[in-house]
Amino acid sequence: MPDRILTTHAGSLPRPDELADMVWARMDGEEVDEGELEAKTADAVAELVAKQREVGLDVISDGEMSKPGFSSYVADRFSGFAGQSEFQSDDVAPFPELAMKLFANPQTAHLGFSNCVGPVELTDKDAVNRDIARFKTALGDADPSTAFMGTISPGQIAFNYPDQYYGSHEKYLAACADALAQEYRAIIDAGLNLQIDSPDMAMAAHARSVGSSVGDWHHHLPLAVEALNGALDGIPSERVRFHVCWGNTGTPHHLDVPLADII
């Protein structure tokens, strides 16, 4: 038992501008030099690990440097996603000028999501292993149990990527859980702690992707928890962190559901 409160953070951290430009270009379908991208990603992880240690954080991450965003990486590593969906948030709808401002910066402009149009399966099985290898290289001799790696929840996929294939919210969540379980296990087997990123647990009460199967958040939450627990089967609970939030956007947040209502 530690003799003080340990310090950590939510996982995803700002990418260096040059790396972000390459990651977004790749996401947009442009050709990038994969060797240069790998080198810049590894350098960014190493610098970030050193910085977290320098400021005194106890439990650190790789900052998700290889990903365009904590959840938008899904379409790059999993099959079944195509097209473009539209995101709506009730706390922004009355303020169209604010919505235009939010989507005017390059980062937000690249956070669009697609639709689920086919079977959800992990296709780039080496991606998480590359992330792990970079992170452990940067960690050096440090105990990996003092580090964590983030990955998305089944519910967050369903929240961001409307289902046009499964026809059932339960089936969609189950398919996402089966695919994600492979990432979860790889992170745990590497000795790292696993962080599940699931803002949908709070945001589903006031935001949605148009055409999403999530529907009423009271219906979504228990199904999403059940799917996540299935994906985590066999993984020690003490190795798992759970990240829920109301979104990190500069929106009014006057419709945020109380934490007590979702736990």
Structural category: mainly alpha
CATH topology description: TIM Barrel
State the CATH class.
Answer: Alpha Beta
Secondary structure: number of strands: 7
How is the biggest beta sheet arranged?
A: 3 strands, parallel
Q: What is the oligomer described by this structure?
A: single chain
Shape call: globular
Span of the ends, CA to CA: 26 Å
Radius of gyration: 18 Å
Provide a descriptive summary of the structure in words.
The protein has 263 residues and is mainly alpha-helical. The chain has a single domain (17-262), classed as TIM Barrel (Alpha-Beta Barrel), CATH 3.20.20. 43% of the residues lie in helices and 9% in strands. Strands 4-5-7 form a three-stranded parallel β-sheet. Strands 1-3 form a two-stranded antiparallel ribbon. It has a two-stranded antiparallel ribbon with strand order 2-6. Helix 1 packs across helix 2, helix 6 packs parallel to helix 8 and helix 8 packs parallel to helix 10. The two termini are 26 Å apart. The mean pLDDT is 93.
